[in-house]
Automatic annotation (TrEMBL):
Its cofactor is Mg(2+). This is Isoprenyl transferase. Substrate binds at residues 34-38, 46, 50, 78-80, 82, 84, 204, 210-212. Mg(2+) binds at D33, E223.
């Protein structure tokens, strides 16, 4: 009889062995949803779900970096999340402090660089400090980028990009003729992630099938996967499974398949 741990390990190994290591999605973005429902199911306060969610961030970060993902973008706090009860908001603002306090040495060991995108100025000072310290401490790591979307909203990001381009046009730094998709992408917060600005794969946990103001420009050609698993239950084997599903998709980017099976834009 298999113990639970042995069963889990063997499931993880079998999902992992199905992954084609030559075709790993370079940029994976995740909407980590279902923390509250996970806690509710266990008659625990909602914040217990966020706490467990933080543990999962650690596990999934390690698994993603080991398998060769270049950028892992995690939606940790949206510009809409301020509407939650103050206690919950405070708890969520404390999570990066706890997380980086404990996990930065591990990140460095795994050669993972921290990046944060979102309106930092609205964050409490201690959160800002924790984030900036983590960015500084991991700045020389050149493996995977762990990119937290923190106080992030995609529409705000797009408006800011438009305003910055308008200013640059006014100051003769850019001409209107120069404005194209490539230039626009540079003005977005994901401009820092070049050449992996756009996610290849977007995963949302918990069964909800919404984008919730996340990376609206960047996901134009991303593969979308919605899984019923709540984020605190999301294991490396779930990640491997989602990567396998991604690898079975036929990505054409609006083009057609050539006879050789390569993509050709129309
Ligand atoms: C959505 O679940 C989740 C969040 C708003 C917070 C996500 C944050 C974490 C997983 C931890 C982040 C860790 C670090 C290190 C910053 P929900 O609360 O909306 O769940 P529900 O839909 O079931 O209520």
């Amino acid at each position: 009889m298999f113990s639970n741990k042995k069963k889990k390990d063997s499931q993880e190994r079998s999902e992992k062995s199905a992954v084609d290591l030559q075709r790993i999605p370079k940029h994976i973005a995740i909407i980590m949803d279902g923390n509250g429902r996970w806690a509710q199911q266990r008659h625990l306060p909602r914040v217990a779900g966020h706490k467990q969610g933080m543990e999962v961030v650690e596990t999934i970060t390690k698994a993603a970096s080991k398998i060769g993902v270049k950028v892992l973008t995690l939606y940790a706090f949206s510009t809409e999340n301020w509407k939650r009860p103050l206690d919950e908001v405070n708890f969520l603002m404390d999570l990066p402090v706890k997380f980086f306090d404990r996990f930065v040495p591990e990140l460095i060991k795994h050669n993972v660089r921290v990046n944060v995108m979102g309106d930092e100025e609205q964050l409490p000072k201690k959160t800002q400090e924790a984030v900036n310290n983590a960015i500084e401490q991991t700045k020389d790591c050149d493996g995977m980028i762990l990119n937290f979307a923190l106080n992030y909203g995609s529409r705000t990001e797009i408006i800011a990009a438009v305003k910055n381009i308008a200013t640059d046009v006014k100051n003769d730094k850019v001409t209107t003729e120069q404005i194209d998709e490539d230039l626009f992408a540079k003005y977005l917060l994901t401009g820092q992630l070049t050449p992996y600005n756009d996610p290849d794969l977007l995963i949302r946990t918990s069964g909800e099938q919404r984008i919730s103001n996340f990376l609206l420009w960047q996901i134009a050609y991303s593969e979308l996967e919605f899984t019923d698993t709540y984020w605190p239950d999301y294991l490396p084997e779930n990640l491997y499974h989602d990567i396998v599903v991604f690898q079975q998709r036929d990505r054409r980017f609006g083009g057609i398949k050539t006879q050789k099976g390569e993509n050709e834009s129309k």
